[in-house]
Amino acid sequence: MSDLEFCTTRREGRVLVVTMNRPDVMNAVHAPMHHEMSQIWDDFAADPDLWVAVLTGAGERAFSAGNDLKYTAQGGRMKPPASGFAGLTSRMDLEKPIIAAVNGVAMGGGFETALACDIILASSNATFALPEPKVGFFAATGGVQRLTRQIGRKPAVDLLLTGRKVSAEEGQRLGFVNEVFAPDELMAKAMEKANEIASVSPSSIRATLRVLRHMDDMDNLRTSLLYSRQVLMDLRETEDFAEGVNAFVEKRKPEWKNR
Asked: How many domains does the chain have?
């Protein structure tokens, strides 16, 4: 994995540490980075010597600010991989656990990427939100499906429709954050958890995750994610979509057309 441009990786025993590495844009993800991350997860899945992964963001400000809207506004049309946002949100067959070490802002697709991980550990200064409705999007890469499954429909709808920010502590109370740590302790605690998981039977871990993925299939998660992608394609044709992206880039309040 030495030819990476938008991420860094390192191996620590049985653990793969993946760092989203675009700190100048708060680790926002554009299409080339989606594809790079998809390859990282493909390689992780195929490597018998790697049993657990930790995913985090470079710098102190952000895990990931989500979709790179400036790339979108500039006409970036390269399609994300079939494996979804960050090569992860539509990946349904990975039988190795991923721990999200959320070290700052996790917005939009960044939050959805964390939700697609198996465990979320957060810094006390982490902030979560699905602000897509504020820019003419919706949480189309698993936010609608995973948040409602992980914390229940009513509290999830509040976050999905308002786009409001949630602290790490509130995230833990709601149930999507497992534990909260001081910023300078987060990565050490994430590695501690990863090594704890790596100390037990990898066959048992695979079996557990296989059943969990099967439960997702029973809930038609895969079908719902595909439907979200189609709805997003329809949304891209609306005036509100274009207005939301342009307003964000121009740092002004959107003027919604409702068409």
From this structure: 1
